[in-house]
Specification:
alpha+beta, 2 domains, two-stranded antiparallel ribbon, extended
């Protein structure tokens, strides 16, 4: 099992230090969110699509982006996960920078999701959207 862990971590955490006998070190000091992002690049938690309502817009559709971890904000340690997920999954409407139409950003969750709760003090932050 330790050998499997080493093989899994080596591509992401191998340091440049090499010691006598070809011994190398793995610096695995990291956050769980960052580690999950590195290990699950091919298995994202969700994807976003961004498209314009104007079919002749020069940038009608922006390539989908994939993300490994869904980050939800908890103010003062209090969070309603269902409400936060519902808000996170709502389709967002923005103005298109290329024409005078509206753009829609939609979130599609994948088979497996990882959720990170970010705790912030109440009243210190006005608006945050992680992408």
């Amino acid at each position: 099992m330790n050998r499997e862990r080493i093989l899994l971590l080596t591509p992401f955490f191998l340091s440049d230090n090499e010691y006598i006998g070809d011994v190398k070190t793995i610096d695995a000091m990291d956050t769980i969110s960052s580690t999950a992002s590195k290990l699950l690049k091919t298995l994202p938690s969700y994807k976003t699509t961004n498209y314009c309502t104007n079919y002749i817009c020069p940038e009608f559709s922006i390539d989908p982006h994939s993300y490994e971890v869904i980050k939800l904000i908890a103010f003062d340690g209090h969070i309603n996960i269902q409400e936060s997920m519902d808000t996170f999954l709502e389709r967002e409407e923005i103005n298109c920078d290329n024409c005078d139409s509206k753009r829609y950003i939609t979130v599609s969750v994948m088979t497996h999701i990882l959720v990170e709760l970010v705790s912030l003090p109440r009243g210190k932050v006005k608006c945050i959207r992680f992408l």
